[in-house]
Every structure is written in structure tokens, then in C-alpha cells.
Amino acid sequence: MNKLVAVVFLLPAVCLAASVVRTLDAPDTNISGLAWGAGTLWALDESSCYAYELDPETGDVQESFYVEHSVCSTYDPAGLAYSDDVLFSSFHSSTSSSYIIFTSPTGSYLGYDCLC
Prior knowledge:
Blueprint: E1 3-4, H1 7-15, E2 24-25, E3 31-37, E4 40-45, E5 50-54, E6 61-66, E7 76-83, E8 86-92, E9 98-103, E10 109-115
Antiparallel strand pairs: 1-2, 3-4, 4-5, 5-6, 7-8, 8-9, 9-10
């Protein structure tokens, strides 16, 4: 498995002369988004469109589910955010609009928004 390196966390650490606390094995081969929420680390894979809930201490996969995206099935996952018990997965296309897919932490599809 590839090593999961959170550049978002690494850059501030380097600027503050902090050290890396731990690295985790990636749950899949093409992680395109990371998020922190509800005390856990979330990862989104670009190839499989699966979201993974990871134990932040061990990196073990707690849950995984396919991110429903039928409105934009030709789009690629590009990012992930977590807020108020909702995962926000961004999907983009090089030739058109982007979409945000709303999913519960258990994998239930909650809707989408088009960034037209």
C-alpha cells in the first residue's frame, strides 16, 4: 500500500519546525481527498469512488462505502470535507462543472449541488 501523507498537515508542521507524528498506510491506491471529522480521518479514492473511515491511531479501515454520484458519473473525485455529520465529496471534470455530493458518515446519499 502507498503511504498516506497529508500534505495539508505536513506543510504547517514544516513551517513551525514540528515533526511528523505518524504515517498511515493508504486504504486504496489513489487517495484524492482527506478530511477530519467526528474524531476520525476520512479518505476518498479517485479510482474506486470509495470513502474510507480510518482509525487515526492505526490507519485501520473502520467503514467504507461507495460515494453515490450518478448525476456526475463521468466526473472524478477531487476532494473531501466533513462538517455537521456530512461528508462533502467534490467531483470535477476537465471540460465542465463540478459537483459536491453530500453523504452521511454511514454512506447514505443525502443529495448534491452543482457548482456551475
